[in-house]
TrEMBL record:
This is Multidrug resistance protein MdtD. It comes from the Bacteria. CDD domains: MFS_Azr1_MDR_like. Residues 28-503 form the Major facilitator superfamily (MFS) profile domain. It holds the Pfam family MFS_1. The gene is mdtD_1. InterPro entries: MFS, MFS_dom, MFS_trans_sf, Tet-R_TetA/multi-R_MdtG-like. SUPFAM superfamilies: MFS general substrate transporter. One of its GO terms (molecular function) is transmembrane transporter activity.
Length: 515
């Protein structure tokens, strides 16, 4: 496959992109789907293993860092990888990303303490974020917008499958060979993906010199890192009025101002500011941000609820996420086919976020007595609410921006979703820690900190005390899902501003500014 060159369909083109030869198209897209599966499994495989990991390497309060490190690195790496793909071609970026992903997995799997594990997850996340972004951009290179929607829906289903298959496999590996293997297991698949990719994708010939915006990339990295770090420590590890937190807030403001200044003057900015004047770019990424908060927060803490409150083994707790996967896959594939058949997509995010809001509210009403079938049904509807947004957001952005910015535009969808995931997981974790202090700690006067509480600790308590602690756990977890319902409701309001764009031809060169 050849990426578009500077001479390819440009801002003034009105011709519809021709579909490539079918057999070759399926081979290339299957290869890209494999890399997407690899990266998205790396995001989720750790969730059911978190209780065992933190019991081995650290206390319960460190649980969010294992997830956040990956999400943060993915968030920072995504726009840079998207820009590099626009400049030098998708193939070389995908090859490098696979290598980075595998190195990070090896470091994480070999970790002997929490800092090394977090370092490995950061490296792995940088590679994983690049894989997701560039994989989705390949679809835009190969297909016209209307045909593109069907494949974006299918890719979103792959993302959903791996998102839930990851925790299932992770729980099984934890119970059989140990948590270290949840990182090693991806290595042979990564090598296979690299080999297939090398044989099927053609390298783009660069016709003009490019200059990467290092200053913009650095400032963006500082900004996103500071936001996530503040979400992790503000109000939990440190008071909001403490000097480190105030310094972080100042760093966020300064790095954002610096980023906007640099990008407005850069020859080839990491994220062209003109994209933020496109309404669909604003709306789709606003929804991505909010849905990402709900999605990753839920995936991270549902296994905790099942293992502690319901006493379910790690592998079995992953099974219940299959319900969420089923809803997500059903909605993703169906939404892609609807867009391809009718060329309409505006109503889908509104319907999906409304369903998501209702399902998250139902999840927040769970108690110790809530039957597992009801939990599974709630998770299915959460999947239905998430699925369409994964596909529609990318289609809406790709159909509204210039083709020369296709990589970075596609990257923005991933960046905002992962930023929401990192911040959302941090907020969920902060609310959980607060709930633990409020409901659980008073029942266990023998401990000095809630960091000492692990699943093993709870399992070994006396029957009477254990029942009270489990009830308190449920009370500590429920407010997180109510917060998720509020975020989903806000996403619904944002989605009402989406503008329907025709999907018959290539992405337009320019779009009317936001109203």
């Amino acid at each position: 496959m050849s990426d578009h060159s500077p001479a390819a369909a440009g801002p003034d083109d009105t011709e519809i992109q021709a579909l490539p030869e079918r057999g070759r198209m399926y081979v290339v897209l299957s290869t890209v789907a494999l890399t997407l599966f690899l990266a998205s499994t790396g995001q989720s495989i750790v969730s059911t293993a978190l209780p065992e990991i933190v019991s081995d390497l650290g206390g319960l309060s460190y649980i969010t860092w294992v997830v956040t490190a990956y999400l943060l690195a993915s968030t920072v790496g995504a726009p840079i990888a998207g820009k590099l793909g626009d400049m030098y071609g998708r193939k070389i970026v995908l090859q490098c990303a696979i290598g980075i992903f595998l190195v990070g997995g090896w470091v994480a799997g070999s970790a002997w303490n929490m800092p090394v594990l977090i370092l490995g997850r950061s490296i792995q996340g940088a590679g994983g974020g690049a894989l997701i972004v560039v994989s989705l951009a390949v679809v835009a290179d190969m297909l016209p917008p209307r045909e593109r929607a069907k494949w974006q829906g299918a890719f979103s289903a792959v993302f959903g499958l791996s998102t839930v298959l990851g925790p299932l496999v992770g729980g099984l590996l934890v119970q059989t060979v140990g948590w270290h293997w949840i990182f090693f297991v991806n290595i042979p698949f990564g090598i296979a993906a690299f080999v297939v990719l090398t044989r099927t994708l053609e390298r783009q010939t660069v016709h003009a010199p490019h200059t990467l915006d290092f200053a913009g990339a650095g400032l963006l990295m500082v900004f996103l890192s500071s936001v996530v770090l503040m979400a992790n420590i503000g109000g939990t590890m440190l008071p909001w009025i403490s000097i480190p937190v105030i310094a972080l807030i100042g760093l966020i403001a300064l790095s954002l101002a610096g980023f906007l200044f640099v990008e407005s003057r850069a020859a080839e900015p990491v994220i062209p500011l003109l994209l933020f004047r496109v309404r669909n770019f604003q709306v789709a990424n606003g929804v991505n941000l909010l849905v990402g908060m709900v999605m990753f927060g839920t995936i991270s803490f549902i296994p905790m609820y099942l293992q502690v409150v319901k006493g379910i083994a790690p592998a079995d707790s992953g099974v219940y996420l299959i319900a969420m996967m089923a809803g997500l896959m059903t909605a993703s594939v169906s939404s892609g086919r609807i867009i391809t058949a009718f060329g309409r997509y505006r109503f889908l995010p509104m319907l999906a976020t409304a369903i998501l809001c209702g399902a998250m509210f139902a999840l927040s009403r769970m108690t110790v007595e809530t039957p597992l079938w009801q939990l599974a049904l709630n998770l299915y509807f959460i999947g239905l609410g998430i699925g369409p947004n994964l596909a529609v957001g990318v289609v809406a952005i790709q159909s509204s921006i210039p083709r020369e910015h296709m990589g970075v535009g596609t990257a923005s969808a991933n960046m905002f979703r992962l930023t929401g995931g990192a911040v959302g997981t941090s907020i969920f974790g902060a609310m959980f820690n607060h709930g633990m202090q409020l409901h659980v700690a008073p029942l266990l006067p023998q401990i000095e900190s809630v960091r000492q509480i692990t699943t093993t600790f709870v399992a070994e308590l006396e029957t009477g005390v254990k029942a009270e602690v489990i009830e308190a756990f449920a009370q500590a977890i429920s407010p997180m899902f109510l917060f998720g319902a509020v975020m989903a409701g806000l996403a619904f309001l944002v989605s009402t501003r989406l503008v329907e764009q025709p999907l018959a031809g290539p992405a337009p060169a320019r779009q009317a500014p936001a109203e």
